[in-house]
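User: Hi! I'm working on a homework problem where we have to compare a predicted structure to a textbook description. Could you give me the structure for the chain below?
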Amino acid sequence: MSFDVSDSIRKLTGENEGDLFNRFIFFTRVILIGILLTCLVLYVINALRMLSFPYQIDHMEGFALYEARLLAEGRGIYHDINEYPHMFDVYTPLYLVLCSFLVRLFDVSFFYGRFLSAISAILSGVLVYLIVYKHSSSRFAAAVASLFLFASPYFLVWSGLFRVEMLGLLLSLAGIYIVDRFRASSHVYIAAPLFILALYTKQSFLAAPLASTVYLFLQNKKVGAAFGGIFLAGSGALFLVINHITGGHFYMHVIQGHSYDFNFSYALNLYPMGLSTHIFLFAAAAIYIAAPRLREEFQSCGHLCLYFILSAMIAFLGMSVRYANMNHMIEMIAVSCILTGFLIASAISGSGGSANRKQTPVEPIRKKEYISASQDEGESITLPSILIILLIAQSLIFCTFILTMGSPTGEDAVVRDEVSIYLMSVEGDILSEDMGILVLNDMDLIFQPTSMDALAEMGLLTQVKYMENGTIRAVILNFDIYNDGAVKYRSVIPEMVDAIRRNYHLSTVIGDYHIYESDYEAPAV
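Assistant: Happy to help. Predicted structure tokens:
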């Protein structure tokens, strides 16, 4: 029994090799699938590297692992901000609670949280496929939509980190899937708890519940009001419980702590970069929403169109916070993949179509079907072929980004091993830009880069005082404190830079780690 690769691809794309026109369409789809599968292979390779790397990759990973360790030890994470070391916990707790169980069962390691993120990412891709296939019955469109999610360089990076984004995305997409499937049934209310869990994974996951509530309300005011009421009541009750347990500090950490760093100029610098990287993907989603011939289908998938618009707005707001990154676009990227899948299915069917009618799988494209649909062979060729060609361009952009992205190496691990050995020789507190290396060595954190500006504005930046009196014995940074060009782009704020320059000397350099030791000498008794 032989295995025919071209036959398998034809089954996936829904194409037969026939005349010249069919061959052109067939091979453009093969090229697109081939590039996306290449991106998927690169995704898997990168994910395995990230899972196996024992140290911090992203600067927030160390802080997240620290909080999971605190919870595993029965300690709180939303402490009184007025007490040293005055650090904000910027996220809601669900992901950290789940990771704390893994830490308690196994060990203090980045692997388990990253594994949870990777599983969440894979399941998110499955949901993208299922949503597109439900409406289009096109395996090709559903596969391309799902593969584009894994091809996005931003998705690739954050899906392998010890961070909250992937679990929040999975819960949001699961809720969207329930709304999409059961919008005419009482089962639709199952989505509300999923949206609440997403919100308590990260407080910015609001686009999905808002879009679903508005959509359901427009379809049936009673159902929409009840759905929104369940979401608001559940979210509010949970907030009051956690805020009460933490003595009011929950509000200070996850809401008020963000307000000090809000500035639209940050987003105006960052947001266009994300748009340009995903230009054809976002454009395809926008075309699907706006195209007149697709308005009929827009009505049946209204919550997904609203979801894209709201996720784009919330991403912009999220990027308006200092130290924000491209992780705020993850939700927008996921829903754009879904809408792009709808657009592909509509284009290859030769008409706008309607998701309300009973649809059958997309049949192999034949020239006569296009002529009968549009009475114009040129138009029939143009619509699907231009779309596929643009998506090929988008996949090549993604592939180029992925190939040029760096990933942790064995040499990086060796450097961190040496720093870990150094830590054993220090008595007293250590301020480290790499927070993860302290956590893995069973030390407490006294520094969270993203909270420094807020603490300075609130008059709570006492780390400077502890640098001057010798409490903080060493400072570990990934740059030279005397290089003004390097300092400008780092997370250590000017007050701390000045304190380090006045009270510390450069002791040693291990790889990129610059270790500064305190000049303080205790007065003689």
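For your comparison, note the following. The first helix runs from residue 5 to 13. The chain is about 65% helix and 5% strand. Good luck with the assignment!
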